[in-house]
Specification:
four-stranded antiparallel beta sheet; alpha+beta; 2 helices; two-stranded antiparallel sheet; single chain; elongated; 27% strand
């Protein structure tokens, strides 16, 4: 898991459903929904409650909550074992994003 910022666009369709897109979507009034090069996901409708169909899509930045991945991986491995080889395996798996 990289410790970087990810950008996406969020838009609400005419029916009130919320969606995330990689690129800024374009409004289609006839179909009452948004179109973009890459659709990412639907989102919980309770997010961005002020965003409506009439609004332009908003750009959102997200970043992992772990700011020091190496330290967190080491801390986790220390809680699991004292064995050096197993710690190294745990640290590498943790940093790769595996749920261990």
């Amino acid at each position: 898991m990289e410790n970087k910022t990810y950008k996406l666009f969020v838009a609400r369709d005419k029916n009130g459903f919320l969606f995330a897109y990689e690129d800024k979507p374009t409004r289609c009034d006839i179909r009452k929904e948004w179109f973009a090069g890459k659709f990412l996901s639907s989102m919980e409708n309770s997010f961005f409650t002020d965003l409506t169909w009439e609004d332009e899509p908003i750009e959102v930045e997200i970043r992992p909550t772990i700011t020091d991945l190496d330290a967190k991986a080491q801390e986790y491995a220390n809680k699991v074992t004292d064995n050096k080889e197993i710690k190294e395996l745990i640290i590498n798996a943790y940093k790769a994003g595996y749920n261990i």
